[in-house]
C-alpha cells in the first residue's frame, strides 16, 4: 500500500475537477459500501444517543454523512469551527442542511482562551514552532472536541488507512484511549473509491478539493500538494512532523 498521491495536475479533460480526476469505481466498492453501512448500523444500535459523527467536513467525512443520512440513521453529526477555517469549508454547513435536512452541531473554541493566546503569541504563532502550533491546535481543536465527546460512548470518523503512514493501521472499531469506541467505517476505502461514491450519489464536497487539497484543515495550515507528495503533505508543510494535530493521535 502506498501513501503517496498520484495527482495528475490538469493533465486530463476534467482538470481542476476532483471527481473527473480521481473517481474510479472498483469491483470491491459495492461490498465496501454495504460493510460500511453495516458498521454504522451496528454502532447506532450499540451506542444510541451516545454516538456522534465527528466530521472534519472533508470529502471522506462527507461520504460518511451521506451514508448516515441516506439510511436515515439517528446519528448526530458534529464539527469543529476553529475560527480559522476556509469559507469554503464552512459553506458546507448550509449545503448539508439543504441536502439532508440535518443540522450539524458546531463546537467552537473558548473565545477568551484564543484571544489570550493570540495576544501573547501572535495570529500566526503556528509558524514559529511545533510546540506553538500544537498549542494552537489544542485551543482550537482538542478542547472543543472534548466538549463534543463529553458523555459520548463512541464517535465516528472518516479516517482511511491510505491517508498517511501514521494512519496505515486505522481500525474499523478501536478504543480511542479515553474509554470510548472510535469507529472509522471507510478505513479500507481508496481515494478513487471515495470519489467514485461522491460521483454516484452526488455528495456535496468542499470545492477546495478541486484545487489539489486532499486534506483540508485551517486556512493558515493547508496548501495544495504536488504530484508525488503524501496526501497530508499540505498540512503544516513547514514542519518535519507526523502531520497530526492530536485529534487522532495514538495513545
From TrEMBL:
Pathway: Sulfur metabolism; hydrogen sulfide biosynthesis; sulfite from sulfate
GO molecular function: 4 iron, 4 sulfur cluster binding; adenylyl-sulfate reductase (thioredoxin) activity; metal ion binding; phosphoadenylyl-sulfate reductase (thioredoxin) activity
Needed co-factor(s): [4Fe-4S] cluster
Assigned keywords, A-Z: Cytoplasm, Iron, Iron-sulfur, Metal-binding, Oxidoreductase
EC number per UniProt: 1.8.4.10
Comment on bound cofactor: Binds 1 [4Fe-4S] cluster per subunit.
Active site, UniProt feature: 245 (nucleophile)
Any single biological process term in GO: hydrogen sulfide biosynthetic process
Domain Phosphoadenosine phosphosulphate reductase: 51-224
Pfam family, one: PAPS_reduct
GO cellular component, one term: cytoplasm
Residues at which [4Fe-4S] cluster binds: 136-137, 218, 221
Family assignment from sequence similarity: Belongs to the PAPS reductase family. CysH subfamily.
Functional summary from the UniProt entry: Catalyzes the formation of sulfite from adenosine 5'-phosphosulfate (APS) using thioredoxin as an electron donor.
Protein name as annotated: Adenosine 5'-phosphosulfate reductase
Source species of the chain: Roseateles saccharophilus
Gene that produces this protein: cysH
